[in-house]
Amino acid sequence: MLDDGQSIKALEQKEISKALKPWENTIIKNFLPVVAENGVFAVSDGMGGHNAGEEASRLAVEQLFSMKKYIFQTPAPEGITSRFQDYVVKANTFINTKAGKNNELKGMGATLTGILLCEAGVLTFNLGDSRTYAFSAQGLTRLTRDHTEGQRLLDFGTIKPEELHLMENAKAITRYLGVDDKYLIPQADIEGPIPVEKKIWLLLCSDGLTDMLSDEEISIILFEHFSVGKQENAARLLVEKALEDKPGQRGGIDNITVLLVEADRHIPTILEHIKEFFKN
């Protein structure tokens, strides 16, 4: 239960990859006292080419921000969930409408992952392959499931995790904002609420991070900084490690976005620390 002694601190770390420009990843942030206002933190990763992907992710978070008041008109998690799905439908239609008016934007789309803060705790949401994790002294937990062809086959038991790299279409996104199918109404996976009873870190990231680092590697980096509260160092190191070249693998093949949110009962105010690093 969120109470008067509890609030949120967030840090954003962004990297333009070695390979891609312009920026396709978009972050929406709203820093308000949790006890006084509900908030939303999200990462959106564009799809459909540089310009189109950038526009799709921008539209996704623009719509989320514009509908935030509507989403949180009800304090109940069930109501928030229902209204968030209304946002998904509207954002999907909005992106498709824009794409239909401009051939250069045709086929654009965007992933979306993040958290919604309400009185009952934290709700997580996801469309696509951007991810949200929770980290505490007990370790790292992935809170979202990828909407990819590879994950679908894993769920059915058709393939094993070690066989994913053999699939040409393993990374094909099966659910996202901007899907152009009148018979398919997109829905986000929404889980929670998760009560915040002690310090946790919530990691929101694009697949530019998770394609380069395993969950184990992410956990090791967060563990090294969690107990001493080095949130900024942890976010920076995650990106730096993802940019490193490895034997047989080039680092930084995709844009990397990391948003690290700390929920702690004893943080009196919300502190915003935003740092952008651009590497050529």
Q: How far do the termini sit from each other?
A: 44 Å
Order of strands across the main sheet = 8-7-10-11-1-12
Radius of gyration: 18 Å
Number of E-state strands: 12
Order of helices and strands: EEEHHHEEEEEHEEHHHEE
Structural class: alpha+beta
CATH superfamily: PPM-type phosphatase domain
Q: Mind summarizing the main beta sheet?
A: 6 strands, mixed
CATH fold-level name? Phosphatase 2c, domain 1
In short:
This protein is α+β, with helices and mostly antiparallel strands. The protein contains seven helices and twelve strands.
Give an overview in words:
With 280 residues, the protein is an alpha+beta fold. It has one domain (7-278): PPM-type phosphatase domain (Phosphatase 2c, domain 1), CATH 3.60.40.10. Helix content is 29%, strand content 28%. The protein is built from seven helices and twelve strands. A six-stranded mixed β-sheet has the order 8-7-10-11-1-12. Strands 2, 3, 4, 5, 6 and 9 form a six-stranded antiparallel β-sheet that branches. The termini are far apart. Mean pLDDT is 79; it is low at 1-8, 14-25, 28-37 and 266-280.
What's the SSE blueprint?
Elements: E1 7-16, E2 25-28, E3 39-47, H1 50-66, H2 68-71, H3 77-100, E4 109-110, E5 112-118, E6 121-127, E7 131-136, E8 139-142, H4 149-156, E9 189-194, E10 200-205, H5 207-210, H6 215-226, H7 231-243, E11 256-264, E12 272-278
Parallel strand pairs: 1-12
Antiparallel strand pairs: 1-11, 2-3, 3-4, 3-5, 5-6, 6-9, 7-8, 7-10, 10-11
Helix pairs in contact: 1-3, 6-7
